[in-house]
Amino acid sequence: MEKERERIERMLREGKITKEQSEKLLKALEESTTREAKVIKKSKRKIIAISIIAVIIIIGGLLVGRELQRTIGGGKLSGQYYIHEKKGYKIAIPPEEWNPTSSRPLDIFFRNKKGGGWMGTGAYTMPKSFSFEEVNNWWVKIISTKYGWADIKILEEKELNIVGFNAKLVTFEFTRSGRRDIDMTYHIWKPVGKYNLYRIRMTCRKDKFKEFLPVYKNFVNSFSFL
Questions:
Q1: What pTM, to 2 d.p., does this model score?
Q2: In whole angstroms, what is the distance from residue 183 CA to residue 160 CA?
Q3: Which domain holds residue 182?
């Protein structure tokens, strides 16, 4: 029992299970010990073996469930990276205060646990008629119209190269629900292959922009194709 208890506590420290899950496992161990005290001595070893097997099965189920949860938006959280093999890219996972989830049309979406902003990335198939030269104008118009953003103010536009491909950056300020927010979006153009437009985006409250910007820059700089 002590070995199993130590194992559960070690898994909790390593982040493999949550506190709630560890409490359930410890409770299962305690209940098995109580049952053991009520049976005759001859059957004790058999009951212990069954109890330990049951706990191991529970632990295995929790680990399998956790692994399934690590698959998000068609890609997988693996080590320090989010890897999307189908779309051919990977990007570093932000610090732990950013919680990963799925939110279309992005593949992966990291929301700050304290609130105030999020960042994410996705890859898309654009038609032949799509003009990457006009991507910044297209993006500001389509996203602000979709969500009803007002008082748009362009803060920065830039052409650059990311991992060997042409890219464009646009940063703009807008009003929604009576509050000023900022959207900062990089688009990468990869004309060969099914997925030709890659987006790395952050949206946050204006008063959080300077705080979140270093994390977002590291996020963008970690992007690479497989």
A1: 0.70
A2: 18
A3: 75-225
